[in-house]
Amino acid sequence: MTEEKFDTVMKIHNYTPYRMIHALSGHWMDPANRAMTKTVINISSTSGLHGAMGQINYATAKAGIIGLTKTVAAEWGRYGVRCNAVAYGWIDTRMTKPPDPDEKVVIGGQQIMSGIPLNAKKWRDTSDIAVGRPGTVEDAAGVMLFLSSPLSAYVTGTCIECTGGRYM
Hints:
Blueprint: H1 3-29, E1 38-45, H2 46-50, H3 56-76, E2 81-88, E3 104-107, E4 110-113, H4 121-124, H5 137-148, E5 159-162
Parallel strand pairs: 1-2, 2-5
Antiparallel strand pairs: 3-4
Organism: Lachnellula cervina
InterPro entries: NAD(P)-bd_dom_sf (IPR036291), Sc_DH/Rdtase_CS (IPR020904), SDR_fam (IPR002347)
Protein name: Estradiol 17-beta-dehydrogenase 8
C-alpha cells in the first residue's frame, strides 16, 4: 500500500471527524449551553476492533476513531457532551454489495470501484453472524437513534458493536 493511499483513508476517517468535533468545541464548551443536549456519535468498524486483511489503512483509521471517541468523552463530559462510537459489521449498503462495473467513485481523478467482490467468500459467509444475515440500514440507524436519545443519557465513551452477533 502506498503512503498516499494510507494518508487518504486517514484523512477521510480520522481528520474529518476530528475537524467536525473541533468546530463545535467553542459552542459546546460555552457555559451558556450547559443545559443543551450534546451528543457526538462517531462511526467505527469491526475492522478497527479486530483488524482486516488487506485494509491496514481502514483498520488503523477505525481504531483511531475509538481513541478519539474515548478522549472526547473524557475531556468534554464536564461540558455535558456525550461521545460514543458505533463499530458496524456487515451492513448491506452499496459499499458491501458485489461491485457494479458501471458504478465507480472518482477520488483525485482516480476511478475506484465500490463493493466487495463475490469471491470474498469468508467475508460474505453469514454462518458466524448469530442472527444469520447482514444488517440493514434500519439496523444501523437504530443504534444511532438509541445513542442520540435520552435512553442513552448515561452512556459515554463507549463503542457499541452493531454486528448481528459476529465476533462474539
